[in-house]
Design brief:
CATH architecture of the largest domain: Alpha-Beta Barrel
Helix content: 25-40%
Radius of gyration: 23 Å
Bound molecules: pyridoxal-5'-phosphate
Structural class: alpha/beta
Low-confidence stretches: none
Mean pLDDT: 95
Largest sheet: 9 strands, mixed
Shape: globular
Strand content: 15-25%
CATH superfamily of the largest domain: Alanine racemase
CATH topology of the largest domain: TIM Barrel
Number of helices: 12
CATH class of the largest domain: Alpha Beta
């Protein structure tokens, strides 16, 4: 199983059709009359009706992933909370869907919390984290009654305690620890190593100091520990190593303070297939490694098994989504490459420019045709680096074709921008032959809504 950021071999036309791309497409993807269908909806007709660029999310796929997490974690231990990380993709309908599936919601800002509040998400099932929450955000969390706050610094802990005390309540917290594990993923999305802006390091006693401090503060109830070692992780041994360290720390806490840690949140991070060679671990195997790992280490240390929490984001929504674009200009540079330009780009998907992320593409109205050439899908922004897919197999394109970039359901819409005053695409949910907006396409008026004449 290769590291997800490992260099890829030069691409060759692979003659694959959409039917061969199942591992990167939503689970309901099929081909009919040469068109790609998702959720029973013809994506080509959808693109013509709703316009492009357009994010399309398969509702059945999202629900299936949430259920897989619930099933394969609770299979090994009854008390596991599956907390969807809203940063991957969040809309009001998405928040309601997560609630309907009996899962919890992880928010990373006051803005994400505002979505939870507006969606009437059960507040006791909301968790808020972030390495630099403002006073205002801390007050919003306490006032809203969020279930857990993940505390990242002593500075934050003191302010939070004062805010909670002033309101006559105790806020339940998890302390974020960095277990000193370098997860097997891209450097920019590793977070569990000692040198991290997140959390308290275990080395040199920083995390223990934080625990002792929390136990003394009147406005704080120390429920447990939190960690998140990174994202797009393929190899499960990174999770096992972090769990071993965390449970050992739980024992040190009990020995030094007499306090029993009741909850352990191991974060998110399970990788997904962006490209055809990618073979991420399954949710079933992940559930076993995480839950059995915690149980086994607790047994070794004579600790009660804590309530467990996992926080998946990418693995819930990434493969549920695709982005549809209309092909514009096609520029063939002899002996170099062919650029296929589309009506979107780095404003709706920053990941290729940010992380060198790789995607698979196909032409939705030629979904039954083989990918018989190599093309580079370029965006329309004023940056040479505005490339969505670098030198990858594609069906022969023509202007007006509907081009589909796969696995864009996570960290694309949520990281989108208005660069070049591009309006953000809308997001539609598709299900059982129907589609509906979950986020409408922006308008020029939206772009100027905050401008002052
Ligand atoms: C604290 C925390 N939890 C969960 C996640 C979700 O991670 P993923 O989308 O890789 O599952 C993130 C992502 O950055 C995170 O920072």
């Amino acid at each position: 199983m290769g590291k997800p950021s490992a260099p890829r071999p030069p691409a060759v036309p692979d003659q694959k059709t959409a039917a061969d791309l199942a591992s990167v497409l939503p689970m309901t993807a099929t081909v009919k009359d040469g068109h790609l269908f998702i959720g029973g909806v013809d994506t080509v007709e959808l693109a013509h009706e709703a316009g492009t660029a357009l994010y399309v999310m398969d509702e059945q796929h999202i629900r299936h992933q949430l259920r897989e997490y619930v099933k394969w974690t609770r299979y090994h231990w009854k008390d596991v909370d599956v907390i969807y990380a809203g940063k991957a993709f969040l809309s009001l309908q998405m928040a309601r869907l997560v609630a309907e599936e009996g899962c919890s919601l992880l928010c990373a800002s006051g803005g994400e919390l505002a979505y939870a509040i507006r969606a009437e998400f059960p507040m006791e099932r909301v968790q808020v984290h972030g390495n630099n929450k403002t006073d205002y955000e801390l007050e919003e969390c306490v006032d809203a009654g969020v279930g857990r706050l993940v505390v990242d610094s002593l500075f934050e802990m003191d302010r939070l305690s004062a805010i909670a005390e002033a309101r006559g309540v105790k806020q339940s917290i998890l302390i974020r620890v960095t277990p000193g594990i370098e997860a097997d993923t891209h450097d920019f999305i590793q977070t569990g190593q000692e040198d991290s802006k997140f959390g308290f390091g275990l080395a040199e006693g920083l995390a223990m100091r934080a625990v002792k401090h929390a136990l003394e503060l009147p406005g704080i109830d120390l429920a447990g520990l939190h960690m998140h070692i990174g994202s797009q992780i393929f190899a499960l041994h990174s999770f096992s190593a972090a769990i071993e360290v965390a449970v050992h720390f739980m024992q040190e806490i009990r020995d030094e303070t007499g306090h029993t840690i009741r909850e352990l949140d191991t974060g998110g991070g399970l990788g997904i297939a962006y490209g055809l060679p990618d073979e991420p671990s399954t949710i079933k195997d992940y559930g076993k490694v995480v839950v059995d790992g915690i149980k086994e280490h607790c047994e070794e240390h004579g600790l009660p098994v804590p309530k467990m929490m996992v926080e998946p984001g990418r693995s819930i929504v990434a493969n549920a989504g695709v982005t549809l674009y209309t092909v514009g200009s096609i520029k063939e540079i002899p002996n170099i490459r062919t650029y296929v330009a589309v009506d979107g780009g780095m404003s709706d998907n920053i990941r290729p420019s940010l992380y060198d992320a790789h995607y698979e593409a196909l032409i939705a109205n030629k979904a039954d045709k083989p990918r018989e050439m190599i093309a580079t899908v370029a965006g329309k922004h004023c940056e040479s680096g505005d490339i969505l897919v670098h030198d990858a197999p594609l069906q022969c394109p023509e202007s007006g074709d509907i081009l589909c970039v796969c696995a864009t359901g996570a960290y694309c819409q949520s990281m989108s921008s208005n660069y070049n005053k591009q309006v953000r695409p809308g997001v539609v949910f598709v299900n059982e032959g129907e589609w509906r907006w979950t986020v409408k396409r922006e308008t020029y008026a939206d772009l100027m809504a905050q401008d002052v004449e």
